[in-house]
Amino acid sequence: MSILVVEDDEDISTLLKRGFEMEGYKVECVDTGEAAIKRANTTPYDSIILDIMLPGCSGLDVCREIRETRQDASIIMLSALDTVPDRIEGLKTGADDYVVKPFAFEELLARVRAQARKKHVPNKASDTTPAPLGDLSFNAAIRKVEFEGKSVVLTEREANLLILFMENPGQPLAREDIFKELWASQGGSALNVVDVYIGYLRRKLSSLGVNASSLIRTVRGIGFVLDPE
Q1: Which residue from 31, 29, 1 is spatially nearest to 16, judged by alpha carbons?
Q2: CATH for 2-120, among 3.40.50.2300, 3.40.50.1970, 3.40.50.150, 3.30.1850.10?
């Protein structure tokens, strides 16, 4: 398992590199956001440990950039910013988990392992092709969604979410039920990860045209629904 550590504090970076290598991981370290984006664009990593307060490009910007390029490495943010809004902002950018400094290496290691277990959970996107709904269709083999003649490729997690909606067309799904179906058994996530990935999926669908932008609606007091009509 390969890990990219993005941390400008040399002491913390050295600690993490030594600790993960002792556990058998392959570790690379960079100290700027720009270097992190460059490495992530050329090297597939299983996990990225990402400090928020970096010189130049912040960790939040790095996370957004990585997610926009459809990379599915698990991202765990490190930050001294410990308020609830800070954590929510980190998760909204696409992070899978958020760890507050100072932290115990053993806890960070446990969170990395929890994210790694997701790779061994049966993946709906790789083996499930739902029936088309009107002009909406999804090709599981290449994670491509099509609508009214346009198409866009989804990440694995976006694809799993779309499949869940397409298997339940017109049926409102509660946040809790979505979380239970796609994230609860995988560790390292909070309930608001559902809203984060709903946002990602909506943006991808919006690129297919104005009609596609309203396919997933919020149902007040319940959750979300896919309305193919």
Answers
A1: 29
A2: 3.40.50.2300
pLDDT for res 127:
54
Place of tokens 């997690």: 157
pTM exceeds 0.70, yes or no: no
Q: What is the mean pLDDT of the chain?
A: 86
Going from the C-alpha of 186 to that of each of 87, 91, 205, the distances in angstroms are: 19, 16, 26
Distance CA(228)–CA(214), nearest Å, equals 9
User: What is the Cα–Cα distance from 103 to 78, expressed in whole angstroms?
Assistant: 9
Report, as an integer, the average pLDDT of 58-67.
90
Domain positions in the chain are 2-120, 124-226
Q: Is the peptide bond before 172 cis (omega within 30 degrees of 0)?
A: no
- The CATH architecture that domain 124-226 belongs to is Orthogonal Bundle (1.10)
Tokens linked to 121: 């959970």
How far is Cα of residue 141 from the mean position of the Cα atoms in its chain? 20
75 close to 63: Cβ distance less than 8 angstroms = yes
